[in-house]
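User: For my dataset I need records formatted as: sequence, then structure tokens, nothing else. Please produce one.
Assistant:
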Amino acid sequence: MNKTCLTAITAVLFLLCATVVSAQTVVYNSIPNPVPGNVPSEGFQCCANSEFGDQIKLAGTARAAGDVTVLMSSWAKKSDYPSMLSEGFTHPITLNIYADAATAKAHTPLITVTKELLMLWRPEADPSCGTAWFSAADNKCYNGKAFEIKFDLRTAGPGGTSVLLPDTLIFGIAYNTQTWGYNPLHQPGPYESLNVGLNNLSAPSVGTDINPNGVFMNTSYAPFYNSTGEVGVFREDATGWASYVPAIKMTAYAIPATINDCKGGGWQNLFRKDLTPFKNQGACVSYVDGGN
């Protein structure tokens, strides 16, 4: 076999392996497609928020946590912060996943991940839009800019292990601003104009929003809740949110539960609990039989 042929075969095998390893399944998606220039959003500084999210039911059977994508909205402009990065500003954002309403209220998440992420500037004002910016993609003027951030949950378990998602869960996005958040920063910054995006264009395309008329939130100002209850805890605001769904996407890996899961080529989209793929059907069957 000549060197050129060997190189070609190696490249094909690498691509096949990469395809299998990256085979995550979307188990929930409420991000609009396509994403417009901006979306309605829930602010933290303006609304005394510390955390904002929703209760959802995942689709399918894949439950080993993969990635979570969150749609954000930034109203901050670069011209207001000339000393900062040209593309945006970095800010720590926390994703919490809770098993139920009781653990959400107690602020004891099943999974918690904090990342320093890049928040994009909204474009500068366009003369045709007054103080707003113009989006040529959809020929509209917007005051904010929608963009996505991503969390990798593949090693979010104890000691960097994988973690299984419950079928029904509550997620929360948390971050600090000048005077609000779990640990206020006590100084002004562009994060005062940073919001969590909402989808008012469509229902979730994958998975289920448990209460389409409600969200989960923690605000310190009682009138910002639409329903009566405790203030300053992460709880359900059970009414007043119809057609406004917190916009996120969750992916997961499928782990085989029975030998039949491995058959008919099914092993190619299955993974061990450590998220390593199977080389063939026999390896998948052996794993189900003995866990190796």
